[in-house]
Give the backbone structure.
Amino acid sequence: MDKILVTGGLGFIGSHTVVELQNEGYEVVIIDDLSNSSIKVLDGITAITGKTPLFEKLDLKDKAGVETFFAKHNDVKGVIHFAASKAVGESVNEPLLYYENNINTLVYVLKELKKLPEANFIFSSSCTVYGQADELPITENAPVKKAESPYGNTKQIGEEIIVDTCKVSENLKAIALRYFNPIGAHESVNIGELPIGVPQNLVPFITQTAIGLREQLSVFGDDYPTSDGTCVRDYIHVVDLAKAHVIALKRLLENKNKANYETFNLGTGKGSSVLEVVQSFERVSGEKLNYKIVGRREGDVVSAYADTNKAKDELGWKTELTLDDAMLSAWKWEQKVRG
C-alpha cells in the first residue's frame, strides 16, 4: 500500500488519523518532535492496530533534517500535515514562536513535495479562519475574516501558501480541512487527548475538573445571544474527524479532486452550548461538575457551527458519533490516564 507521512502523528488528531490509515492498510511514517506529545502514544497506536508505524523524531524547523528525511523516504505518496503549535492564548503571548513553528515548517515540507513526481497534501486547517461568521451554519464560501490570534493567522497564511504553491506546481494536489472542535478519545481508550499543563480547550478542562485535577471550571459569560447565554461551538468526535482525513487523502490519490486545491468544513453541523456540553458530561459520567459562570473572555466568538453539505456530497463523509459518545470516551480516557 501507499506510504503516507503524518507530521505531528503522535498528537491528538494525528494519532487517531494514523490509526484509521493503518486500519485501511496504508504504510504510515510519523514525524513528531515530541514537544507537545508523548512517545507512549506509539504504544497506543500499536495496541489498537496491531502494527507499529515507522517513527522519526524530527523538528520540522530543521530544514536540513527535512531534506534528509525526504531523500530517504522519496516514495511517500501523501502527506497529512498536523505538526503545529495550537494554543490560541499562547500564540498571543508568543507570536514569533507560532509564525516560526507553523509557517516555516509548512514551507520546508512543501519545498520537498515540489521535488516529487506526484504529491498529495492534506492540511490541518481550522474554522478559526472564519472568525465570527456573518451567517450560520458556516459554508466553505464564507469570507475569511481577519484572524483573532496569531494561531488563527498561521492557519490563514498556511492556506494562502498552499494555494500559491498549487498554482505553480503541476505535481501538487492539496485539500485543506477546516475543522471545528475535536473532542473525545478512541473507544479502546488506548489514545486520547493529552494536554500539557492547563488545558486550553473545554472538554479536557471538564474531565480534569471532574477527576479533581482542577478546582473549578469557569464558564466564560452567560449573556450571549444563544439559547442559554453561553457560547456555541460544533463539537466533533476525533474518530469521525480522523476518518475524514483518510477519505480526503483517497480522493487525491485516486484523482477524484475537482481542483488541485480544495477546502472542506469538518463538523457535525450542529452547535452545542458550553452548558449543553457540561450537561452531556454529567449525563454520561454520573458526576456533578463544579463550575461557575464568570465574565466573558476576550476574543471568544459567540457561535460557530459548520454547514457540512459539501463534505457529505463531495467526500461522502458525515459524522456518526454523538456528543454523548465523545464525552463518555473523554471521561474514560481521563480516568485511565489518572488511574
Q: What stands out?
A: The longest helix spans residues 95-113. The chain has a mean pLDDT of 97. Residues 83 and 181 are 17 Å apart (CA to CA). The longest strand covers residues 119-126.
